Amino acid sequence: MALTEVFQSAKDASVAEEFLGSAYVIRDVEDRAALDQFRREIVLAAARAINHPPPEDDGAFLDNIHRLVPVENLNSLRLGLYGELNSKPWFRPTYFKLVTRLVETLVGNELAMQNRINVSIQMPEDRTSLLELHADVFAGETPYQIVQWLPLVDVRATKSMFILSRPKSEEVVARLKDFSEGGMRALFDAVEPDLAWLEIPYGKVLLFSPNVLHGNVVNEETTTRWSLNCRYTGLFTPYGIGERSLGSYYSPITARPVTRMGMAYRQPGGFEE
Q: How many other CB atoms are there within 10 angstroms of residue 64's CB atom?
């Protein structure tokens, strides 16, 4: 039958229900060949930065970068890669290509994207690369956003990140003042039994709402974590604090023709008395 009584496909509705329940979804990237080439370019840039020949096995090179780079040089490597990669015209469009359909399902098809993609490298036992329990909205960021978190290697347990489901996060945030004396350490101890430690093999991607509590701990695994993260929001949604607004932090990536025409329209003047 050609007629319908719903506005959303069953597949999209299922993704939406999953996301609204837990505040995250994990899926295969939408273009595996693009991911493989994307990772290869990052590996080549990292190898050049440390004067290492191009490796044959990209995953093994990334997993074992701590054998080639001392931890005290890690931040300079990360910042160098961050600057170089974000200067490439293919970096953000290819990153978005990996999740286009999923982001459009969860956010919409008129989008603003973070101007720069963050690069994270967490070596085993490194205590300088932690992002402890937090929710981005605590810092005044817009609640109308989603994070694409892309591992470049297999991640699990302490090599990954943790997230507190939406129901649990909302319950805890509602009584956040109860933890004012102990701070985030006390809050972490209280929610630790309920944290989901995400297992994400290379080739899959995480999309999550940074409204819920999340973070990472010291990597106690034997290999290094490499991940990228970037935010999307609807083009016309509120942007929160000034420095995280459209233009300074986000830029439009999929403004549709009617929107562009509407934004260019000017009412005729000269009729005032």
A: 16
- The domain total for the chain is 1
Q: Does pTM top 0.90 for this prediction?
A: yes
Checking phi first, is residue 238 left (phi over 0); if not, alpha (psi -120 to 50) or beta?
beta
Does residue 270 belong to any structural domain of this protein? no
Q: How far apart (Å, rounded) are the C-alpha atoms in residues 159 and 227?
A: 10
Rg (CA), the chain: 21
| Domain assignment present for 229 | yes
Residues 228-242 pLDDT 10s: 999 999 999 888 776
- 126: tokens are 């490194």
Residues 6+ apart with CB under 8 A from 154: 59, 200, 201, 202
Q: Beta partners for 162?
A: 197, 215
Angle between helices 74-86 and 32-49 (to 10 degrees): 130
Q: Is residue 7 part of a domain?
A: no
Print the domain residue range for 34.
12-260
pLDDT computed for residue 60 by the predictor: 98
Express each pLDDT in 159-209 by its tens digit.
999 999 999 999 888 887 878 777 778 888 888 899 999 999 999 999 999
CATH number of residue 35's parent domain: 2.60.120.620
Q: Pick left, alpha or beta for residue 169 (phi over 0 → left; psi -120 to 50 → alpha; otherwise beta).
A: alpha
Q: Do residues 79 and 43 lie in contact, with contact meaning Cβ atoms separated by under 8 Å?
A: no
Write the pLDDT tens digit of every residue in 79-95.
999 999 999 999 999 99
Q: Is residue 267 part of a domain?
A: no
